[in-house]
Amino acid sequence: MLVDGIPYRTIWLGEDGESVEIIDQRKLPWSFEIATLRTSDDAANAIFGMLVRGAGLIGATAASGMFLAALECRKAADDAGFDKEFARLGEKLKATRPTAVNLAWAVDRQTTAVAAVSGIEEKIAVARHLAAEVADEDAEWCRRIGEHGLPSIREIHDNKGSDEPVNILTHCNAGWLAFVDYGSATSPIYAAHDAGIPVHIWVDETRPRNQGARLTAWELGKHGVPHTVIADNTGGHLMQHGMVDMVITGTDRTTHTGDVANKIGTYLKALAAYDNGVPFYVALPSSTFDWETRNGVNDIPIEQRNGEEVSRMGGAPDAEMSLEPEIEVTVVAKGSPVANYAFDVTPARLVTGLITERGVCPATESGIRALFPEK
Fold first, then answer.
1. Spatial separation of the C-alpha atoms in residues 54 and 58, rounded to whole Å
2. Distance CA 172, CA 11 (A)
3. Catalytic: 108?
4. Contact 235, 243 (CB under 8 A)
5. Which of 121, 359, 317, 350 is nearest to 249 (CA)?
6. Of 204, 252, 259, 290, which one is the catalytic site residue?
7. How far apart are CA 165 and CA 160, in angstroms?
8. How many CA atoms lie within 13 A of 358 on its CB side?
9. SS in 3 state form for 184-245?
10. Tens-digit pLDDT string for the chain (375 aa)
11. Which of 217, 265, 318, 358 sees the fewest Cβ atoms within 10 Å?
12. CATH assignment of 147-371, given 3.40.50.620, 3.30.70.260, 3.40.50.10470, 1.10.10.10?
């Protein structure tokens, strides 16, 4: 996507061939800065510390982190020693964000591929190639999600029979910043905007990290898509008054039975959409499916993060959003305990459809397996 006229992905191989470059999302929207990852620990810290966010980008960062791990294993005495240390570093990466299934998917894919070849330099070459492949796949799959989600937006626009925009509500950031390019939930939005279909996006601020207000709004603005930032609890009111035509969210893990784990607050939006007859779609690449878990509500692990993400809030020091250092303030009474559940699970029955790189399907096991029969 374009940032001030310059095309960027969210992650790429450094010019030296032995480092990885990422956009430091902690700095947005006040400052656009690039961070360099040189070790697998750097990659792990980027994932846990939320320099990178979103299912697809976490997966791509994990794949690149495994390439960096391969470089660290270069001094191994033999193939067996390399594979053992490589797997150990992979487990450290997996532990950073337990809910996002793309993370384990990318690490396991690297571990399997590297173990299948002989010779330390060949193993490193495979890890480098696969890191690039995972990133390229993610971008292409998200582009296709846009193609498959576009008809639903077009149909709503045609049924409105006017030049009024299609009002779409989002939650958290499932944009190109959450993937390698295009995004999942935003890909159909960008496709519709680029096709000349008028759209307007209601952007949930998404506490506690404000990914909507800070990231989704920023990237929509860079692409010229009309949008309005709202408090998280506004969506139900808007739906009651006919001001939302559809909801599109992303997901960090979706079971093969259609249960959707996503940023905390998604479940409440799905309930409001269901009560008001508003279509609720979830956009995801196939790498985000969990092919083992059946009951998402009971069995998907829900990450609990540091309470300071809730009790403290960061932002620009003035209304002009200057490039001065971000400031943080405390917003919770001293001594009050804080809980910080990062995700919730929306049951499949509340999901209108899943938008994938292979098409749109019902949020049911039969619907999902019809698109992915090999699974």
1. 6
2. 20
3. no
4. no
5. 350
6. 252
7. 9
8. 12
9. CCHHHHHHHHHCCCCEEEEEECCCCCCHHHHHHHHHHHHHCCCEEEECHHHHHHHHHCCCCC
10. 888 889 999 999 999 999 999 999 998 998 899 999 999 999 999 999 999 998 899 999 999 999 999 999 998 989 999 999 999 999 999 999 877 788 999 999 999 999 999 999 999 999 999 999 999 999 999 999 999 999 999 999 999 988 899 999 999 999 999 999 999 999 999 999 999 999 999 999 999 989 999 999 999 999 999 999 999 999 999 999 999 999 999 999 999 999 999 999 999 999 999 999 999 999 999 999 999 999 999 999 999 999 999 999 988 887 666 656 688 899 999 999 999 999 999 999 999 999 999 999 999 999 999 999 999
11. 318
12. 3.40.50.10470
The token duo for 233 is 């609890």
CATH 1.20.120.420 placement within the chain: 2-137
The pTM score is 0.92
Ranges for all domains in the chain classified under CATH 3.40.50.10470: 147-371
> Does residue 132 contact residue 13 with C-beta atoms inside 8 Å?
yes
Superfamily name and number for 2-137 = translation initiation factor eif-2b, domain 1 (1.20.120.420)
Q: CA 47, 52, 56 angle in degrees (round to 5)? A: 95
- Give 98-140 as a 3 state SS string: CCCHHHHHHHHHHHHHHHCCCCHHHHHHHHHHHHHHHHHHHHH
Q: Quickly count: other Cβ atoms within 10 Å of residue 249's Cβ.
A: 27
Work out the number of other CB atoms within 10 angstroms of the CB of residue 355: 27
